[in-house]
Amino acid sequence: MKVSEFFGFFFRYVRNPSSIGAVCPSSSFLGRKMAAALSGVVGDGDAVAELGAGTGAVTKFILDTPGLNTEKFYCVEFEKRSADILGKKFPKAKIFNDSAENIVEIMSGDAKDLKCVVSSLPLLSLPRQCSSSILSRCEDALPKGGLYVQFTYNLFNPPADKFFKNMKRIKTSYVFFNIPPARVDVYQKQ
Q1: What do you get for the CA distance between the two ends of the chain, in Å?
Q2: Which residues contact 107 (CB under 8 A, 6 or more apart)?
Q3: pTM (2 decimals)?
Q4: What whole-number distance in Å separates Cα of residue 153 and Cα of residue 175?
Q5: Which of 84, 105, 116, 138 is the least buried, fewest Cβ under 10 Å from its Cβ?
Q6: What stretches of 4-162 adopt beta strand conformation (E)?
């Protein structure tokens, strides 16, 4: 990441900490860990959504996933400046400056092929109703066996557990080489 991108990210956090959720972008260690959940799971016909893509720290690793169809890869970022950066860095990805609550409408016809959602959303910083709405929409859109990957800085209590009804946490891992250290949870729809 360029120094200018880092400081731009930091200053956007200072202006609106609840929507950015972190003082600095995710590390490459965290990006790799989150994208690893897709490996061997997604195929050419599957759609993948990334929520809260920020400036692309996780995006670049998702795009390296074998079998990923970039035509069916959707990045949703609420913060306009970050969405603009994503569009320049990843011209093959479908970038949307919108709320993650609108994921089904954003994906339109590809929503029926949704196989995995990768989320860097600051669920604990968002209003509870907003987090609930986003996770409910994702859960409803995913098919049986579909995956939802979420990271959090809360190492002990994953916030997504509070909202899901038919999603089971199947894997938890920790990334200590991140500022701050993070927890990655993988859920599967039952």
Answers
A1: 38
A2: 47, 49, 74, 114, 141
A3: 0.86
A4: 10
A5: 105
A6: 47-51, 73-76, 94-96, 114-119, 147-152
pLDDT band at 12 (very low <50, low <70, confident <90, very high): very low
Which segments of the chain are extended strands (E)? 47-51, 73-76, 94-96, 114-119, 147-152, 167-175, 182-189
d(CA 46, CA 67): 9
Rounded CA gap, 67 and 45, in Å? 9
Structure tokens at 75: 């990045």
Question: In angstroms, rounded to a whole number, what is the distance separating the alpha carbons of residues 164 and 40?
Answer: 24
- Strands 47-51 and 114-119 come out as parallel
Question: Of 24-33, 120-129, 163-172, which gets the smallest average pLDDT?
Answer: 24-33
Backbone φ and ψ for 168, nearest 5 degrees, come out as: -110, 130
How many residues does this entry show for the chain?
A: 190
Cα–Cα distance measured from residue 134 to residue 181, given in angstroms and rounded to the nearest whole number: 24
**CA-angle at 35, arms to 29 and 36, nearest 5°:** 85
The neighbour count for residue 165, using CB atoms within 10 Å, is: 10
pLDDT in tens, 126-150: 999 999 999 999 999 999 999 999 9
